[in-house]
Amino acid sequence: MQGLGIQSIKKNPALIPLYVCVAAGAAGAVYYMLRLATRNPDVTWNRSTNPEPWQEYKNKQYKFYSPIRDYSKTKSPAPNYED
């Protein structure tokens, strides 16, 4: 396909910024997807060892960015089912 190979980049070097921007966007999307899959308390990978993983995040800040409040100091409104 024309425009996708090394020969096309040599003929038209203006395509290099386009390739760089697309690659950076794809890398950012993959990084954020992996971060959500590994750090989000809603995702459970091993339910046999920890059947209620959301209890680990009861007093932790798990939001990506919050300039206004620190969630590690607030009490979670979630009920405690262990009692």
- Helix residue percentage: 25-40%
Given the structure, what is the number of helices?
A: 2
Query: What is the general shape?
Result: elongated
Radius of gyration: 22 Å
**Beta-strand fraction estimate:** under 5%
Query: Biggest β-sheet: count, sense, barrel?
Result: none
What is the chain-wise order of helices and strands?
A: HH
Low-confidence stretches: none
Number of domains: 1
Arithmetic mean of pLDDT = 79
Q: Which structural class do the helices and strands define?
A: mainly alpha
> How far do the termini sit from each other?
63 Å
How many individual β-strands?
Answer: 0
Task: Describe the protein in words.
By secondary structure, the chain is mainly α. It has one domain. The chain is 36% helix and 0% strand. The chain has two helices and no strands. The chain has helices spanning 6-11, 16-39. It is elongated and about 65 Å long. The N and C termini lie far apart (63 Å). The mean pLDDT is 79. The chain crosses the membrane at residues 14-34. This is NADH dehydrogenase [ubiquinone] 1 alpha subcomplex subunit 4. Keywords: Membrane, Transmembrane, Transmembrane helix.
How are the secondary structure elements laid out?
Elements: H1 6-11, H2 16-39
